[in-house]
Amino acid sequence: MEKLNSWKIGTLGFQHVLAMYAGAVIVPLIVGPAIGLNAQQLAYLISIDLFTCGIATLLQVIGGKHFGIKLPVILGCTFTAVGPMIAIGNMQGITAIYGAIIASGIIVMILSQFMSKIMRFFPPIVTGSVVAIIGVSLIPVAMNNAAGGQGDPSFGSLENLFLAVFTLVLIILMNRFFKGYMRAISVLLSLIIGTIVAYFMGLVSFADVFDASWFHMIQPFYFGFPTFNLSAILTMTLVAIVSMIESTGVFLALGDVCERKIDSKDIKKGLRAEGLAVVIGGIFNSFPYTSFSQNVGLVALTKVKTRNVVIAAGVILIILGLLPKVAALTTIIPMAVLGGAMIPMFGMVISSGIRMLSAVDFSKNENLLIVACSIGIGLGSAVVPAIFGSLPDSIRLLVENGIVIGSLTAILLNLVFNYKEINSSNSEQLEQLKSDHSVDVI
């Protein structure tokens, strides 16, 4: 492979940023309005998200003696946390979100020492069910945004429906007629084109962009000092464990791409760095971070395996996080355009869960029952949360969240029906994780 000069390293690093940008900013764009943040607060949330994405990536790529997988991996905020964060924020306040994130990050660092023992409780039937529940529970968010956003006077208008469908069709066409890198950034391009169309329809205002400053300094605990609630911590810990398993698959897949054998010590250091990244996210009032599998596909596509490129991407993310106008520019995307992009993005989460479940032996009625009950209870809780209205708030936070109650159901039923297999070897599960993350997942 040719030696890369600084210009090429920077350009390839920016390509990695583009590939993950839509996935990185869409989480604050969903969570912020859902927990009642105004435009200024939302712009800050996006800025700090980009900044801490960069910090988390450098921590994982550069690492140290006890931290970091030291592979060309990008870290970004996980979709898995969207539903739980919204539930915690609406029931216990925004500071409880960050208390739970910090605590879950510390727990991840501890659990990374015992990952081989933890994984046996999360075979494909559990992880597949959990990921499918996450995707299904997020679809209503996408549909509400496609209509213009709940409470918006133009909710369900023809203009909103047109923009949502237009954005969705653009993503489909780009994935049909393009390959490689263009396909990898299809969501980002569709959001940009959809916003341009909305501008000519008179639905986009640049007032917040003009008002935003060019530079600002980030500050810890911007939204207030974290509060620690047991039920919220348990919720985010479940999310973190699912992310740990997904990241293990990313590490194994990326090790294959980079022709480097990944052993248990590497995985421990990678997960330990991820836990520290989650703690940093909580301190700076951003999000829990996980390894982005879409960037594994980009490494495989470009054949550029040097860590310097991803280090450059981390630095670019930090710089973008210090520029409020960049974040403010992101907030002008109309809700309908965002909703149109969310439909395939969240749908891909469901597809990923189904793919994980493809490794399950469904000739066993017990496995059918585990999937049926976990997804059924998870979806039912998300659709009809009022069924738990008479329970105390601390318990309602767990059971009204479809992701959490569905995940707990899958874990418990797997213990009931498959307790003999739980003590068996993890080798098949590791191979399945590697294959699950060997291709790009939005």
Task: Explain how this protein is built.
It is built from 21 helices and 2 strands. It has a two-stranded antiparallel sheet with strand order 1-2. Helix 1 crosses helix 2 (39-62) and helix 11 (230-257) crosses helix 21. It has 442 residues and is mostly helical. It is found in: Cell membrane. The chain crosses the membrane at residues 12-36, 42-62, 69-88, 94-114, 121-141, 161-178, 185-207, 227-254, 275-292, 304-323, 335-357, 369-391, 398-417. It is a multi-pass membrane protein. Belongs to the nucleobase:cation symporter-2 (NCS2) (TC 2.A.40) family.
Question: Would you summarize the structure shown here?
Answer:
The protein is about 70% helix and about 0% strand. With about 450 residues, it is mainly alpha-helical. Helix 2 (about 40-60) runs antiparallel to helix 14 and helix 4 (about 95-110) packs antiparallel against helix 12.
Number of helices: 21
Shape category: globular
Quaternary structure type? single chain
As residue ranges, the low-confidence spans are: none
Write the element-wise H/E pattern from the N-terminal end onward: HHEHHHHHHHHHHEHHHHHHHHH
**N→C terminal distance:** 28 Å
Estimate the strand proportion: under 5%
Give the helix/strand class: mainly alpha
Adjacency order of strands in the biggest sheet: 1-2
Determine the fraction of residues in helical runs and give it as a percent range: over 70%
What is the CA-atom radius of gyration, in angstroms?
21 Å
Q: Profile the largest sheet.
A: 2 strands, antiparallel
Extended strand count: 2
Family: Belongs to the nucleobase:cation symporter-2 (NCS2) (TC 2.A.40) family.
Protein name: Nucleobase:cation symporter-2 family protein
Keywords: Cell membrane, Membrane, Transmembrane, Transmembrane helix, Transport
Membrane topology: Multi-pass membrane protein
